[in-house]
Amino acid sequence: MFGICLLLTVSPVSVFGCCPLTRLLYRGPGSPRAGFPVRSVDMQRTTDNITIRQGDTAVIRCYVDDKVSRVAWLNRSNIIFAGSDKWSLDPRVDLVTKGQLEYSLRIQKVDVFDEGSYTCSIQTKQQAKTSQVYLIVQVPASIYKVSEDIIVNEGSNVTLTCFASGRPEPAITWRLLNPSADPLDGDEYLDIIGIMRNQAGRYECKASNDVAMPDVKYVNVVVNYPPTIKKTQSSETQVGRMGTLQCEATAVPTPEFEWYRDEKRLSNSQSINIQILGTTTILMIANVTDEDYGNYTCVASNRLGVQNASLFLYILTVATR
């Protein structure tokens, strides 16, 4: 009886092929004593599949007995080693022989082209015997193409793309990170029909296949929309005091503001001061007179539209005794 055993060591994990224990005999120059127990492959079994990550080191272990006269390693039909003679030109491949009964193959920096069947072949005076391991190389997910940041108008149809490679094939998921970061219904293509202003923000594409940490890329989406005046503040002011009117609008791009009294556009003067602070504008009227009381119009505009609102400067009367 004779036999071999295959064990794959993957940094930092070792994975055994299934090998029942048998008692094997070995005789030959410099060999250990007969009757040394080693592990042997049950040759009725199918080829074992072993999985390793790209870039790791694989050691495919082969243990032989002392009746072996010739040993070799093959990948598919190509001879890698015949005895201690290296036939392969690949510098990443060498033998591991920690003891006279071990004849193991080491492959450093494993890549996808290393995937395939590896055979440890043994020849004795009686017969030849082989055992195989099929090496499966996994590749971490990697996003190689994703949409550029985009600016669109509200109501447009938008398609974001995210392409990834890996083995096994990665799963692709999308999230809009603000405000809730809930998952979105999409894969390589994320379709947004009639995009709204609340769908603007940072979109996350994640590719994962459980080989390593997921790969993540981001797409920033800006949604343009016309102004909406959401807050106005009229004022009650005494004669001779400062009157203040305030108007706030939301828009992308940021709105421009104008103030009107009846049909006349107002501008900064000795008695009028107009301030614009982002999305808010303030109209200040110094030393209010009777002629200043009445209706004022705030106009907010950008290239997508215009909206206006009416505000009032009321006279504040103070009761006298």
TrEMBL record:
The family database entries (SUPFAM superfamilies) matched by this protein are listed as:
Immunoglobulin
PANTHER family recorded: IGLON FAMILY OF IMMUNOGLOBULIN SUPERFAMILY-RELATED, LIMBIC SYSTEM-ASSOCIATED MEMBRANE PROTEIN
What residues does the Ig-like domain cover? Answer: 37-131, 140-220, 226-312
What name is this protein filed under? Limbic system associated membrane protein
Q: Which organism is it from?
A: Takifugu rubripes (Japanese pufferfish)
Q: What InterPro entries does its record include?
A: Ig-like_dom, Ig-like_dom_sf, Ig-like_fold, Ig_I-set, Ig_sub, Ig_sub2, IgLON_domain
- UniProtKB keywords: Disulfide bond, Glycoprotein, Immunoglobulin domain, Repeat, Signal
Renumbered to this chain, the signal peptide range is 1-17
In the record, the note on similarity to other proteins reads: Belongs to the immunoglobulin superfamily. IgLON family.
